[in-house]
Amino acid sequence: MGLVVQKYGGSSVADAEGIKRVAKRIVDAKKNGHQVVVVVSAMGDTTDELIDLAEQVSPIPAGREFDMLLTAGERISMALLAMAIKNLGHEAQSFTGSQAGVITDSVHNKARIIDVTPGRIRTALDEGNIAIVAGFQGVSQDKKDITTLGRGGSDTTAVALAAALDAEVCEIYTDVDGVFTADPRVVKKARKIDWISFEDMLELASSGSKVLLHRCVEYARRYNIPIHVRSSFSGLQGTWVSNEPRGDRKVEQAIISGVAHDTSEAKITVVGVPDKPGEAAAIFRTIANAEINIDMVVQNVSAASTGLTDISFTLPKTEGRKAIDALEKQKDAIGFESLRYDDQIGKISLVGAGMKTNPGVTASFFEALSDAGVNIELISTSEIRISVVTRADDVNEAVRAVHTAFGLDSDSAEAVVYGGTGR
């Protein structure tokens, strides 16, 4: 038996009973002959509570101290889990991200992993121990400051450790039984997917599916680490995410893998932009210099009478104020007339590698939205994805309509959401 990395989200270790249930699952893996490394998130809503506390003390907390505060949640979880494992008669050692050798850049609150040097983890495993690692955190390469990895950081920690330790698999335990064709909180008849390719999972993750985060899947694809998404609340087989189906199973990839949605974005429209070379570059260089990631971009055809056009793009709501301020400072240099901000939007995405070889998918997608009375504001496509922006109030209805239109509804019992947070 080889080495297995297991990751448990906040809903799995939300209380003492949850921690003891997770400890038993870990010990069972050890008894089956595996070397086990565990990455754990903060308990329940601990991280959100710490964020709220920080904002009460300081409206704009310093990045370094904010990271120092947020990493406390995972340290609590890892220590309690190690205690629970020892009560079951097995040795466990807990490690912070820095002790585990997770080396990052110096960008606080959303650091990126540069390297993993898991010497202490290997030593613990060689001594027969179970290693428990605090997720979501690392240490900066230059200043040796504690850093956090941002949203989905514990998933990324787990895959990075699996790659560094040459693990057989990275098991991601959450509060649903695997990856579904849509969010089971919105679509009660969503079907569990037995296997999905890295490419399709990347598109679902980047389009709003919260069961796995984009950075985690990207890392796994780069190092070819199979991911097994499972529930910590049941013993059911979950979803394999990999280049090829596991073992001898032959799984034909579906035309459509699933429908994802996202209501965490906002839309900015730059009104009255001179339609000449360099204008779009100046707008998006301003956004890039503010360290803001954007998603969809649409430029209208310029008006013949004025020679002006509008450029719209979507970005995280949390970055909206910063983007508006950055563009306003460059208004005279760029030469646009005004800015419009809209945070009441939602994105619906249809994902599937089979789309590019099956005519009619695009037509069926738009017909489903039309029949549901959903108006489209922006459209973006790739070879395996179609995304549209609609009103936020229309998102749930749109997801259900598209899911049904493409025959993704399950005939069996409704999907179970055990924890309720999605992590």
TrEMBL record:
One of its GO terms (cellular component) is cytosol. PROSITE patterns: ACT, ASPARTOKINASE. Residues 268-344, 350-423 form the ACT domain. The keyword Nucleotide-binding applies. CDD domains: AAK_AKii-LysC-BS, ACT_AK-LysC-DapG-like_2, ACT_AKii-LysC-BS-like_1. GO terms for molecular function: aspartate kinase activity; ATP binding. Pathway: Amino-acid biosynthesis; L-methionine biosynthesis via de novo pathway; L-homoserine from L-aspartate: step 1/3; Amino-acid biosynthesis; L-threonine biosynthesis; L-threonine from L-aspartate: step 1/5; Amino-acid biosynthesis; L-lysine biosynthesis via DAP pathway; (S)-tetrahydrodipicolinate from L-aspartate: step 1/4. GO terms for biological process: diaminopimelate biosynthetic process; homoserine biosynthetic process; lysine biosynthetic process via diaminopimelate. It is an enzyme of class 2 (transferase). Pfam families: AA_kinase, ACT_9. This is Aspartokinase. It comes from Streptomyces roseolilacinus. The lineage of its organism: Bacteria, Bacillati, Actinomycetota, Actinomycetes, Kitasatosporales.
